Records
---
Amino acid sequence: MKIINNTSRITGTKQLFNQSLCAMAVSAIISTNVYAQQDNVGLERIEVTARKTTESLQEVPIAVTSIGEMELNALGIAVITEIQQFSPNTTLQNSRGTNSTLTAFIRGVGQQDPLWGYEPGVGIYVDDVYIARPQGAVLDLLDVERVEVLRGPQGSLYGKNTIGGAIKYVTKEMSGDTAFNMSGTIGSYAQRDIKVTGQIPVIEDKLYVGLGYANLNRDGFGKYLESDLPNQDLENYNKDLWAARLNIEFHATDDLFFRVRWDKTEDTSNSKGGYRLLPSRLTDAPVPNSVFDSYTSLPTYNSVELDGYSWLAQYDVSEALQVKYIGSHRESYSATNIDFDSTALDIFDVPAEYDDSNDTHEVNLSYGVDGLSFVAGMYFYDGESCGNFDAILGFLGRAAFATPGLTREVSGCNNSESQAMYGQSSFDVSDKLSMSVGLRYTKEEKSAYVNNGLIFDNVYPYSNWIPGYVRPEGDIVPQVLGTDSNNDGVLDAPAKDDWSRLTPSVSVEYQYAKNIMFYASYAQGFKSGTFNPRATINEPSVDPEVVDSFEVGMKSDWNDNLRANITLFALDHKDRQYISVLPVSSPEDLQQILGNVGSSTGQGVEAEFTYAATAELTFDIALGYIDAEFSEVIQETVDGPIDISDAFAIANTPEYTANFATNYVWSSDIGDLVFSANYYYRDDYTITETANSLITQDGYGLLNMSVSWTSVEGDWYGGIHAKNLTDEEYVVGGYQFVTENSDDPTGYTAGTGGDNTLIGYYGDPLTVSLTLGYRF
C-alpha cells in the first residue's frame, strides 16, 4: 500500500496530453512560413536580459519564460512560487516546515535539502544579485517589472549553482517623475495586505529616491490541535511578514549612472506543522480531519530576517560599449521549529538556526554592433553559511536509556570564496547563420567544520527556546570535521578544499525567415563541491556536480497573432552528491557519508504558444514533458559497491506539466476590465528521491480566475482573484521515517523516534482576494 494524496484524478489525462503535445509541436514545426514575412504587429515584443544584455525573447537561443508586470497584476500573482505555473518543467514550492524557504527544480535538477553547506541547483537573482541560500527565497513580488525563468544550465554567464537554470527577479527602474502607488488587499482567511511604493526627484533629471513597503498578513489555513507549551499561537500555515526597500538613482551625466538599493524582510509566520498521514503508535495523535491541521511539542514561532544592499555603477562609453560594476552584501538569519513527527510528544523534534552572509562583486563589459556582440566580466563571491540543529529524540531517550532525554546536536559552518572570469560572444556567419560561444573559468575554495554528537538530554539551540529552558554552557558536542595539522588527534582547523572548472556553452542560430529562428545549443554547468554538514567522522569533501545539456529549438512568430516557441532537450547529470552509504530500508539513518555517487539523465520537450485571436482576446499555452531517471546510484556494501539506481526516482519532477490561460480585455465607460483564467496541470510526482516513497502526489489541476480593473484615467485600479477554485489538496513536501511491514500490527516498521512518522505539507487551498489601489 502506498500513501497517496487523494486529489481528483483526470481520467486519461496523461495519454491525451501526450497526444496533444506531439500534435501541436509537429503542427507548429511543419507549418509553412507564408505569414512569417508580414509585419508582426499583433504580438508583444518581450525583452529579456537572459544573456546579461537586453534582447528580444525571440532572438535568444535559450529556453526562457518571461512574465511581465501587467500579467502578474492581472493574474494576482503575489509570490515567486506561483511562477511555476507558467514555465514548463519547473517546480517552485515552499519547502517543508516554513513559509519562506524555496524548493526549486528545473528539468529535474535542483536541491531538496536546505541545510547549510548544500548548494542550490537553481540560481535565484534579484537585479543580477545572487541569492545564495534558499531561506527567504520565496520572494513576495513588490515593485517588480518582470520575472524571467531560464531553463537549462547557465554556467557560462551565471556561474556555479545554476545547473538546472536561473530565476531572475527584475525590479522597475525609476522614471524620474513624482509617483505614488498604494494598494490594499483583503481575502480568505482574514488576508489583509498593504503595499506602498513611491518615488520623488530630489534633483530634476539627476537624483531620484524610491521607497517601498509591504505588510502581508493572513490567518492560518489550519490549526495546531495540541500543544503542551503555554502561550503559543496555534495558527498553522499563517502569514505575518513585512518588507521594505529603499532605492537611490543618480544620473551623473547622460552616460554615467549610479544606483544604490537596500531591502529588508522580516517573516514571523509560524512554523508549518505537517499533516500526519498515519496515526501515531506512541500517543493519541490520529490523522487530522484537515490536511492543514497538526500537532506539536515545539514552540510554534518561526523567524526569518533578511537584509542587504547592492550598488551599481554604469558607464556608457559609446553607443556600442557599456561597462558596469555590481556589488552586494546580504545577511540572513532564521530560527525555526520543525516537528518531524507532528505529535505533542518529543519524539523527533528539530529546532534549528541558519545564519548566512555573503559579499559579491562583478565587473561587466558589453559591446554590440551589427553582426557582433559580446559580454565579458569578472565575478567574486565570499560567503559564510552557518547553522545548527538539534534532533531531539526525548521520548526514545527516556524509554530506552532512563535519561532526561536524547539529542543529536549538529552545528558548523561552510564557507566559500570563489572568483570567476567569463565571456560570451555572438556573431553573424552569414545573413541567416549566427553563432554564440561562451566560456567561464571558476576557482573556488571552501572551508568547513562540523560539530556532531549525542547528548543524553533534551537540548535546544539557546536558552528560552522553550519557556524556562536554560542551555548548558560551553561546547557539548565534539568537533568531528576539520584538520589535525599536528597529528596529535586534536582537530585544530577547519577542513579545506578547492576546485576549478571551465564551463563552456555554444549555440548555432539559423534565421529561416524574418520571424522564424531555429537553434541548437550545448551548455555545461556545475554545482559547487562541498563538505557534509551532517558529518559524523572527519570525511573528505565531495566534488562539484556537473550537468551537460543539449537543446534544439525554434522561436517563431506566425502571421501577426501566433507565437510558437519549442525546445527539445537532453541532459546528463553527473557526480550527484548523495550519501554514499544509501540505506534503502532505513532512510532515517543520520550517520551517513557524503559522496559523488549518483548520475541521472533527462530528455524532453517544452512548448509555449501565444495566440492573439483578436486585439482583446489572447490565449497562452505552456506544455512540458520530461523523462528523467537515475542511471547510476552506488551503494557501498560488505561485498563491494553495487548499483541501486532502480530504487531511486527524480523528486519534484512530474512527467508532464501544462498551463492553459486566456485573457480578455473589455473597455467600458468606467475603464478597462481584464478577465483572466488559467488551468495548471501537474502530473504525478514523488516528494523524496526513493522510488518506493510512501509520499507521492497524484496528477492534479489548479483552476484560477481573475478580473482586474483600471479606471479611465489610470489612477484607480483593482482586482478580484480566485485561486485553486476546485480546492485541490496537493502535497509539496514531506518526511518519511517509516517503512512498510506487513508483520507489524500497524503495517509499518517505526523509524527514528520509534513512531510511524509519515508527514505531508500541502499547497494553498481555495482562496479569494479583493485588491483596490490608487496611483499617481
---
Amino acid sequence: MELLFSYMFCVCLLHSFATAQTNKNITLGSFLQAGEPTASQVSPSKHFAFGFQEIEPGNFLLAIWFDQIPEKTITWSANRDHPAPCGSKVELTTDRGLVLTDPSGRHIWKSKLPTGNSIGRISYAAMLDTGNLVLVSQASAILWQSFDEPTDTLLPTQRLSLGGQLLARYTEKNYSGGRFTFKLQDTGNLNLFTTDYPLFNTLNSNYWPFETNGFGYQVVFNQSGLLYLIATNGSIFAELFPGDESENQALYQRVILEYDGVLRHYVYRNQLSNSTRGWSIKSFVPDNICTAVVQQMGSGVCGYNSYCKSGNEGKPQCICPPGYALVDLDDEMSGCFQNFLPQSCEKEASQKKNQFDFKILKDVDWPLADYEHFQNVTIDWCREICLVDCFCAVAIFKGGETADCWKKKLPLSNGKSASTVERTAFIKVRTSGGFNSGRRYKKSKRVWTSSLATSGSANIIFLGIIITGFSYNLYRKNPKISRSYNVHCFSYKELDEATNKFNKILGQGAFGVVYKGVLSDISGSHTIIAVKKLNSLSQDADKEFKIEMKSIGHTNHKNLVKLLGFCEEEEHRLLVYEFMSNGTLSDFLYQLPKPAWEKRLRIAQDIARGLSYLHEDCSTRIIHCDIKPQNILLDDNHNARISDFGLAKLLRLDQAHTSAAPRGTRGYVAPEWFTNMPITEKVDVYSFGILLLEIICCQRNVQFENNEEEGVSLLTDWAFDCYQMGTIEKLVKDDTDPLNDEQRLLGMVKIAIWCTQDDPNLRPAMRRVIEMLEGLVQVSEPPCPASYSTSWMEALSLSKHLQH
C-alpha cells in the first residue's frame, strides 16, 4: 500500500470505561479512548457529557459539552493547546487524578490536585448536572473540579475567583488559546484584555474595564442567568450585563469570551420551534469591539494591515484594503499583505510615481501607524506628498478644504471603519508592473511545546513521524503551527449505510458514479457527503483512484473540493468528498435567465486561484488535465471548487514538464497534447481560457450532436472574430449587466484569448491571470491564435479515446 495511505490511517481501538456505567460515578481505573463511538460519560440528567470530541479528522479534545442539543456545544476542555490523536486515553488514577496520554503513552494533560493535602486520596469522579466535572476524595471532599479551571466559558452556578480568567479560543474552529482574556485580577479589578499572544499569561491592552475600583472578589453566573461581581462581604458590587433580566425560559445558558474578543451571554430556549431552535445572543460587551481596542503594541482586533468593521450582534468583520490579501484564507483575523511589490526607494525608481495611484476608503483609519502629521493642507497636497514618498503606504485626510494629513507606513495596526472615524484613507496601490506572486501560508495555530512562545521561521518542517499507526502531520516552525488535513479511512459498510445502499446518484463519469450520502459523527451531528464509487477494480479505475488520492490528499485550499476520506476494501474503491449543494458549474451556467454577471466573474476568479495553488503552492505541483464546467462544483454560497483529479499529473518542484498520452475532455484539450511538445501546467491555462469564455457567454465551447466526433461550432473562433471586429457585445446578447460593463467585458475576453494561445509559452501563468482578473494589471492586446480551427479539428479527430 502506498505511503500516503499509511500516512492517513488512524487505527482506533474501541475501549470503554472498564467499570463505570452511564449516570454512575467514574470509578478508579476506568478509562475512555478517543475514537470510540460511545467514548463519553453523561451527567445524571443527561444534559452534559464528558469525554472525547473530534474537532477535526483524527484529533480530539478531552471536553465537556451540552449533550442534548444537536450542536454539542463544548463548555470546557482539558487539552485545548494539545489535541489528542485518535487512540489517546484518559484514565482515573488514585494519586494523579485524571491522566490523558497519547497512543505511545506520552502525557498530554493531567488534573492539578492540591499538594500535601490531608483530605485523602481520590475515591471517584463524577459528571454533575451543572456541567462541572469533580474528583472526590474518600472523605467526600472535592479535590479538583473543572469549574475551577475554565477555558472560555462560564456556566450557571460557576464562579470566577481572584486570579481566574477566561481565555478566548484562537479562531471559531480552533480551540487553542487565543488573543483575548477576561480576567479578575488579584487586585480586585475586572477587565477584558488583549494578550501578548502567544504568551497567554502576559496581558497587553485593557479594552473594557468594568468599574470595580479594586473591590471585586468573585464573578458569579447564577442559576437565573445573571452575571455579576460580588465584593468580599458577598454583596453585589456590579452587574456585568446591566439591564439583563432573570432568564426563566432558557433551557441552557452560557457566557463565553469568543475568539473575536467579545464577551457574550447565550441562551438556548426550549419553546422555539425546531426550525429556529438554537443558541441566541442575549447580551454582549463591548458594544463595538472595533473601536474599543486600541493597542500601543500589537495589531488591534484584526491582523496587521486590515481594518475592523462592526457587524450584527457586535461581531467584527476584518477586511483587507484594496490591493491587499489575507495572509490565511481560513482566518480573517490573520492580517493582510500587499498583493504587489512596494514602491522602491532607489532614485531612478522613485521618479516613476505614475506606477502608483490611490484607492479611497471613507471612514477608515489606522490611528497609531502614522509617522508624519501635517496641518492646514489640501487633500490634493496630502495625496501628492504620500505618492512621492516611498515609505508612505497610506495617507489619511480629515476635514474640509484645508485640514490635517497623516502619512502611515506598514505594518498598519488598529484598523477600524465606523461613521465616527470621519477620515478618508488613500491606499497606495501599484497600477503597473511588479506584482507580488508571493504565496499565502495557512497559519492555523497549534501549540506543540512550551518553546513555541519564542519566534520561529516560516520554513516548513515535515515531521512525517508515524507512531503506532498515527501520523503527525505537516507543521510550520512558527508560533502558529500549520497542520495538513488528515482524511479518514471508511469501511465499505459505513459508506453503504451512509448512502442508503447507494440509491441517490449525483452524477457519473467514465470510471464511476457519485452518490449522495449522510455521515453521523459521535456527537450526533450530520454531514452531507458525495461518495465517488469506482465501477470496478479495472486497471484504469484503480489507477484513477490512486492518482486522485495522491493529488488531492495533499491539498488544502478553499477553491478545491475537500477530500474527507476513502475506502480501499477488497474490490471496493471509493472516495468521500464534501457535498456541494449548488451542483456543477455546468448546471449553473447554461440556464435562463443567465446567472448574475458579478457572480460569474467571482466564480472565474475562484477557479483561477484554485489552479494557481495547484501549479505553484503545493508541495507536489499538480496539473489537473481536465478543467471543464462539470468538474467545477459550487458550494452553498456559489464559491467555486475544483474537483475530479482522476486524470491529474503530479510534478516534483524541480520538474518543469512531463509527458503523457492525451487526456482530458473534447473541447477543452490544449493543442500540445497532440504534438511532441512537453506537457506543462499551461495545458490547464488553456482549458481555463475555454472555460472563461463559457462563463462570459453562458454557452458551451463545442456543441456535439448525435454522438458525432466533430463539433458543430467553436466558441473560441467566434469570440476572437468578435474581438477583432470590435463587436464583443454579440457574445453577451440580451445580457444587461456585461453589456453595461463593457471595459471589464473586453478585459475578460482578452484574458481568455491570451490563455488559449496555441503556443503554451505565450499563455500567462495562473497567478498572472488572477492579477488580470482582479484588475491589478492592465491586459495587453493578445496576438492572433491563428490555428484555432486547424488545431481543434485535428485534436477532435485524434480524441476518440478521451473521456467525456
---
Amino acid sequence: MGASLPSKEANLFKLIVKSYETKQYKKGLKAADAILKKFPDHGETLSMKGLTLNCMDRKTEAYELVRLGVKNDIKSHVCWHVLGLLYRSDREYREAIKCYRNALRIDPDNIEILRDLSLLQAQMRDVSGFVETRQQLLTLKPNHRMNWIGFAVAQHLHSNASKAVEILEAYEGTLEDDYPPENERCEHSEMLLYKVSLLEESGSFERALKELHKEEPKIVDKVAYKEQEVSLLTKLGRLEEADKLYRVLLSMNPDNYRYYDGLQKCLGLYPESGQFSSDEIEQLNALYQSLSQQYTWSSAVKRIPLDFLQDEKFKEASANYIKPLLTKGVPSLFSDLSSLYDPPGKADILEHLVLEMEQSIRTTGRYLGSNVKEPPSTLLWTLFFLAQHYDRRGQYDVALSKIDEAIEHTPTVIDLYSVKSRILKHAGDLTAAAALADEARCMDLADRSINSECVKRMLQADQVTLAEKTAVLFTKDNNLHDMQCMWYELASGESYFRQGDLGRALKKFLAVEKHYADISEDQFDFHSYCLRKMTLRSYVDMLKFQDRLHSFPYFHKAAAGAIRCYLKLHDSPKSAAEEDEMSKLPPAQKKKIKKQKKAEARAKKEAESKSEESTASSVSKSGKRNVKPVDPDPNGEKLLQVEDPMVEASKYLKLLQKNSPNSLETHLLSFEVNMRKHKLLLAFQALKQLLKLDAENPDSHRCLIKFFLKTRSMGTPTTEAGKLLWSVLEAERQSINQLQNKSLEEANEDFLNRHKGSLMHRAAYAEMLYVLDPSKKSDAVKLIEDSTNNIVPANGALGPVREWKLKDCIAVHKLLVTIPIEPDAASRWKLRCAEYFPYSTYFEGKHSSAMPNSEYNPSHKIVENGVTPTRPVDQSGLIDGKLEAFKKLSVSST
C-alpha cells in the first residue's frame, strides 16, 4: 500500500491507514490532503480519503473520491478493496463481493481481502464460495487456528459434516500437547462438542459416543456433555442407559420439560400420535407419582400428568396442583392451565372442581376435606381464576360478576383490573377495556409490563395519541423505533389502517420490516467473532435461526399489513378532476406526463439525500456529534406516492411466499394481488394452494368462485396467448373436486349443503350467490338472517354459551354494509347481534360504553351511600399530569 510514493509520502500514507483503524479521522484527512497536494491523482490516497470521509457520514464525497481512485489506479488491489468496504458499509453485499474479487485478481494471496470476502459469502449464504475462500485461507496460513475452524464450519454449512470432522481431526493432529493451556480450555471444549455434534449429524452415532467418552476430561460444560451423551444413547437404542442418564439430569434440574419427554421416550411412553392407551396412562401415572416423591419441590412433575390423566384421576391431580397455588396467590395459574381447555371434557372438570373450592371456602373457610384454615386471599384468587375461566368459555356476564366480586374483596390488587380489562376486550368493549387498563397502570407507575398492556388496549381502541403519550413513559427521547418495539408498531399500524390513515399505517408496518433487515444485518459481526471465540454450536444455530427469520409472526403481520395498505391504495380511485383531465389527453402526452412525474420524484429524492448528507458533513467538520436526524416524512405521505402500489405489494408478497408458504393468509393475499395485476396463472396458482391448505374455508370458496367467474366473463380468447391460457385453465379445472362436471352455481349450492350450520360459510355462500346473480339479493339476505345462533352444550355452565363469535358477526355486518343488498339488512343484523353481545361497542350493546346508561360510559356515575365508586373515565385530560408525577418517581429498578 502506497508503495509508488516517495518515502515521506509513503509514511504519511501509513499514517492514514493507522488513523482510520484507530478512528482518528481528522488526523487521517490531514495526512491525505498533504499527499494529494503533491500527487493529486494518487488512486490509493484518494480511496483512503474517501473511506475516511465515509466514516464521517459524508457518503457522497466518499463515493466520488473512491471511484476516482479506482479510475486513476485500476490495477491497485487497495482501491478495489476500499470500494468493496464502502459498498459493505451500505449493505450492498453483492457489489462488495464483485470488488473483492477484482482485488483478488490483482493480489490473489491477500489474506485480509480473502477474510473480508469469506465474511460476505457467509452473510449471503454463498456456501460453495465460502468453502473455496476458506480453503484458500487455510492453504496460505495453516498455522492459524481460526482458518482450520473456518474451513470446517464452511464444509458443515455446505452439508458435508463428515468432511468437517476430518478437518477438525487434522487440526487436532497439529496440536503439540494433549491438553490445551488453561486459558484455552473452554474454547477447546466447545470445539470437541462441536465435532461430536457433527458426527451425530452425519449419522455416526457409535463413533460420536466413543469420541465423547474419550474426550470427557477435556470437556468443561458437563451439562452439555450429559445432554449430548443421552441424545446419542437414545439414537443408538440403548434406552436403559439413557433412562439412568435422564434421571441424573432430572436430579440436576427437575423443572426441565425436555428431560421428562426424553425419559418417557426411553420408557416407550411417548406415542407419535399423542394419544395414550389406558395402560400407558397407568404407567405414566405411576412414573410421575414416584418422581413427585423424589422431587417434591418440582412444579413440572406435578403439572405434566394433567396433560394425560382423565376423569377422576385428572380431577384429583388438578386439585392437588391448583390448591397450593391458589393459597399462595399465583396470578399466572390460569395461563399455566390454559392448554387443558383444548381436549374435550377437561374444561368442565376444572369448572366443577374450582366451583366446589369456591363454595367450600365461602362456607367453611377451608378446602373440602381439609382441616387447615385458608387465608382470606384464597377466595380472591379462586374468583380470579373463575373469571378467566368463564372469559375463555365466552360467558362474559359470569366472568365480569366474578372479577367484580374479587375487586370488591380486595380493591388494591392490580391484576384484577388487568383481567377485567381483558374480559371487556373479548366481550367487545374496547374503550372500557382501555380505561380499565389505564386504571391498573396508575396503581403502579413503575411497572413497565402493565404500562405496555395499557398501551396495547389503547391502540386496540384506536386511541393512538393517548397510547403514544403512555408509551413514552418508559422510553428516552421517544425512541420506540430504536428499541425495535415491534408489538407497538404493529398495533399502531393496525389502528391507523382501521382509521383509514394508510400513510401512517404503512410507515409502521415498514418499520417492522426494517427491524428484521437490521436483525439480519446484525449477524455480520458474528461470522468472525464466533470463529475466534469457538462458540461453534451456537454460531451454527444462529445461522439456522437467521435463515428462517422472516417466517416469524411479527414479520408476517407486518408484511401482510403493508400488502393490504397497497391493495387499498390501488383500489382507491383518483380524483374526478384529475381523471377527467388525463382522459382528454392523447396517449403520447399521457406517457410523457408520467415520465416527467417520475423524473421529478427521482430528482426530489436525490436533492433531499444530498441535503441530509451536507448537513451531516457540516456537523462532522465542526467536531460535534451528529444529532438524531429529523423524520422527513412523519405521516408517511411519501410512502403513498408510489407509481404502482402492486409492484410494492409484490415485493413483500414474495417474502411471504418464501417464508410462510403454509399460511392461508399468504395465498389469499397472493390471489388478491395477482387478480389486480391480471396475472391469471399466478392467481390460479394461489387458488390451488388455498384449496390444498383448506378447501372448505369460506375465503377459499370465495376465491374459487371469483376466479372462474372472471375467466367466464372474459369470453373466448382470440390471441394465441389467450387460447393457450384458456386451454391450461380448462384442463386444470377438471382436477378441482369442487368443480367437476358442475357449474359455478351448482358448486356454490354444494358448498352450502356441506356447511349449513356455520355462519361464516353461509355468509360466503350468500355473497357468492349475489356475485353470480345480483337479482337474487333478497335470497342472499334471507339466508344470512335465517342463520341460528345455537347454544353450545357445556356441562355445569352458569349461562348460555352461544356458537357465534363476535368477530364473525362483525364480519357479516361489514359484508351487509359493503354489498348493497337491501337498505335495512345491516340494521336488522346489528340489532340482533346487540342482544347476543351486550358489551360490544360495535353493535352498541346495552351494557357497552357506547350506551349512555352503561356503567362503563365515561359520563355515567353511580353514587351509593355517599361514595362514588371507581369507573373508567376518559384519560386524555389526566395523562399529562400523570406524566409529570411519574417523572418524579425513581424507575431505576425497571
---
Amino acid sequence: MALNPRVATVPAGTPTKVTQGSQTKGGIGESTLRPDGTLKVTGEFAYSSDMWHEDMLWGQTLRSTVAHAEIRSIDVSEAVAMPGVYAVLTYDDLPAEMKNYGLEIQDTPVLAHGKVRHHGEPVALVAADHPETARRAAARIRIDYAELPLITDEASATAPDAVLVHENRDDHHIGHVPHPNIVHRQPIVRGDVAEARKRADVIVEGEYVFGMQDQAFLGPESGLAVPAEDGGVDLYVATQWLHSDLRQIAPVLGLPEEKVRMTLSGVGGAFGGREDLSMQIHACLLALRTGKPVKIVYNRFESFFGHVHRHPAKLHYEHGATRDGKLTHLKCRIVLDGGAYASASPAVVGNAASLSVGPYVVDDVDIEAIALYSNNPPCGAMRGFGAVQACFAYEAQMDKLAAALGMDPVELRQLNAMEQGTIMPTGQPVDSPAPVAELLRRVKSRPLPPERQWEVAGGEADVRALPGGLSNTTHGEGVVRGVGYAVGIKNVGFSEGFDDYSTARVRMEVVGGQPVATVHTAMAEVGQGGVTVHAQIARTELGVTQVTIRPADTQVGSAGSTSASRQTYVTGGAVKNACELVREKVLEIGRRKFGSYHPAWATAELLLEGGKVVTDGGEVLSDLVDVLEGEVVEVEAEWRHRPTEAFDLRTGQGNGHVQYSFAAHRAVVEVDTELGLVKVVELACAQDVGKALNPLSVVGQIQGGTTQGLGVAVMEEIIVDPKTAKVRNPSFTDYLIPTILDTPTIPVDVLELADEHAPYGLRGIGEAPTLSSTPAVLAAIRDATGLELNRTPVRPEHLTGT
C-alpha cells in the first residue's frame, strides 16, 4: 500500500549532521554534469521566450518618455481602433482594488497613475494578434505629460523644499527615516569612535563612487499567460521566486492564489534582476481581459527599463590604525540611490551597513547607510546585494592605509583578519570558519603569470594579449604591469528576522523495474545548478541512480528566492530532510516485509546504496526493488536555517545573518598608460565553500562571479543623464559587458571548511567572488599607474587625465 504524504519541518536552529553520504555514483562531492547542459550548448533548450500557444496574442507595454511628470490625460482611441488589436489597458482598467505591488513595500503601481516617477515606467498595455501590430498600437497612445522637478541625488532628495517622490508614504520605515525621500536608514554604532580615534597613529579617509550596474542577463524578460476555464490563469515565466510573484500577482488580478498557477520556464540568467516583477501581471491582465493566451517578450532596449539594477553608491570612509597596523576604528557613511520604487532597497541597506567593515576586526565603529527615493531608474537586488559597494570602498581604504603605514597590503589585511569567534560590528559572533588570512595567503603565494606575454617569436606581438586587444593600438609601448589584492565578506541567506525556509517533495517508487526518486521543489533554476545538486542529494541519501527532477511550480510549497547564495543551503536542506524521511519510511517497509528473516533489519544502521539495503558493515539485506514493489513513498518537508533578528534601528546591534562566505582575489593587470586601456591578465581566487557538493559547478560559479566583478571594475555602468534622469545607454551596443576576449585566466583554489550548522557543512558561494574581484582589479590598476582611482568603472580618461 502507498504511504500518505506528510509534511515535516526541521525546527529553526536545529543543527544538521555534516556527513559524506552514501557511495552511490553521481552523489554529493562528484562533478556531475548538468541535465540541461547539452541542450543549452546546442541551442535546443526552451527558454521562456520560446514558448508558443495556439491562437495566442502578443502583449506590448507603453513606457513613459520622461522621468517625473504629472499625467494630464491618456488617449487610447487610435490604438483601440487599429485592426488586430484586442485590448488596450490603462490604470483605470485594472480589475481589483489592489493596484500596487512590491517585494516588501507595495509602492509600485501596475500601471502609472497620476504621475510617472522614472524614465521607462509602464503606463499602458496592448494585446494584438502580431507583435508588430501591438508595438504600432502602443505608439499611437497619446499621453499629455506635465513635467515635474527631478530628484536625482541626496542633495535634491533631502532639501527642505524637496519634491516628494512618494507623497503619501505609509510603510513601516517612514517612522525612522529623517526625510520621506529616504527609503530606509540603518546605523551601526559599537564602541567609542571618538576615543578610539585618539589611539590612531595614522588616519586615512576616502570618498568613493560606485556606478549603476545592470544584471545584463542574456535572456530578456518574457512569459506566457493562459486563461483557464475556472476563471484563473496559468503563467509560464522566467523568474527567481515563484511564490513571491504569486503573492504579488493574485491580489492585483482580484483572484485567490490557488487560481494563479505558476510554472517556471527556461531562465536565461538572473543575478537579482528577476526578483522583482516585470511582465508577469501585465500578461495575466491581458489574458484575462481577452480570454486568449498572451505572450510578452521584451527586446533588449525594453529590458533595461523592465528590471531593477544595482544601486549606485557614494561612500565616505575613515580608517584609523596604530603604527604596527592594528585597526583602531572605522567611520563610514554609505548613500545608495534606490530610484523611484523601494524594491529590495531596505534589505540592501541592511547588508551594506552590517558588512561595511569587511572581514576585519574593528571594535569601534560608527556606520550609517541609507537608500534614497529618486527619479532615477529603480534599483534592487543584484549579485552581492549591498556588500559589493562596501567592499569596493573598504578594500581601497586598506590599500591606502597600508601605503600610509609603509606595510605590505596583504600583511595588513592578514594582521586584522577576522576568524571564527570574531564579533561583528553588529555584536554577532562568527560561529563558523572564517579563513580570511589563509585565503589571502593562498592567492599571494600563487606564481605570477609570465611578464610580457604578448611577445612572440620574431619580435612580433600577439595583440590579443595586450591592452586594446584586436584593435591593435599598441605593441607594448607604454604598457605597465600592476598587481592588486582584495578580500570580501558576504552574508548567505535572507537575514534580519526573515523566515527563510524552503520546501521539497520527494517520492520513491519502482518504475520499469528500477527504484526511482522524484524531487519536486519550487526552486527557480536560473543557471546556478540546483537541479544537479538536488539529484546528487537524492542519490546520496536514497542510494538510487535514477532521479527525476520535476519542473518547478507553485503546486508545491515555497522554495524562496534563488538569490542570497541560499538555494543549495536551504532548498538543498529541504531535499535532504525529505529524503531522510523517505528513507526511514522505506526501511520501515523493509522491516515489515523482511525483518523476521534477518535480525540485522532491526539492529543494524541500515543504508541505501546502489539500489540495495545494506548494513553499516556492507552486508546486503535486500534489493530496493523488492522493498518498494507495490509501494509509493512520498514526503513533503520544509527546512529552515537558524533564526535571525532585525538590526536595532538605533544601534544596529543584532544577530542579523545566518552564515558568511569569504573570497579573496589577486588581480594582475597590464595598463597602456598613454591610451588608458586595461588588460586583466589573471584574476586568481581562493574561496571557502564549506563542502563542494559539485566541484565543477563550484568552480563555474566562482569564475562567473569573478567575471561579473571584473565587468563593473572596468566597463559596466548604466549612464543616467543628471539633467533629465533618462538612461543614455540601454543596449548592449553601449552598455558593455565582458566577452571571452576580456575574461582573464581565473585559477580557483577551493577550501572546504565545514559549517556544522549547514547541510553537509556547505557554504553559499555564488556571490562572494563578485565582491573582491572588483577592488582587486582597481588595486592592480592603482599599482600600475599610481593613480587614486576612487570610482567604478575605471574609464580611459581616468587613466590619462584627458
